[in-house]
Write a structure and sequence with these properties.
131 residues; 2 domains
């Protein structure tokens, strides 16, 4: 192969590579646009996620209030001379509180796990993109 033919072959090969690279760049731009749409959707979901967390916080506070009220009722009975006396209503109420506490604990565990997963994914993505 002559030097001229070799140069001609190189130029054709380079041209094909340049075309492929430009195609890659165009595809990457489309993928970046899609990634931005997905990141916007993620941001919206994270903002909307505050509502369930507020509901969960309200449920925790309500459970705490009921538990505190129940404790006051038991203390009042103790003061009135009914120390250690538990009637059916008190036992039933406590069983309900116990079940609610278990449900709140399970919900909290779910939120904690999901939060950790999301924060880990966001941190990894942030670290990757900002390198």
């Amino acid at each position: 192969m002559s030097d001229r033919d070799h140069m001609h072959h190189d130029h054709q090969s380079w041209s094909a590579e340049h075309t492929a690279w430009l195609d890659d760049l165009a595809r990457w731009q489309r993928e970046h646009a899609e990634a931005l749409r997905q990141l916007d959707a993620i941001a919206q979901r994270l903002r909307a996620g505050d509502a369930p967390l507020a509901t969960h916080a309200a449920r925790i506070r309500a459970h705490e209030t009921l538990s505190t009220e129940h404790e006051h009722v038991m203390d009042a009975r103790d003061t009135a001379g009914g120390h250690g006396v538990l009637d059916r209503a008190m036992t039933t109420r406590h069983a309900h509180e116990d079940a609610e506490h278990a449900a709140v604990a399970a919900a909290h565990e779910h939120y904690a796990e999901r939060h950790a997963q999301i924060m880990d994914a966001v941190a990894r993505l942030y670290a990757l993109v900002t390198k």
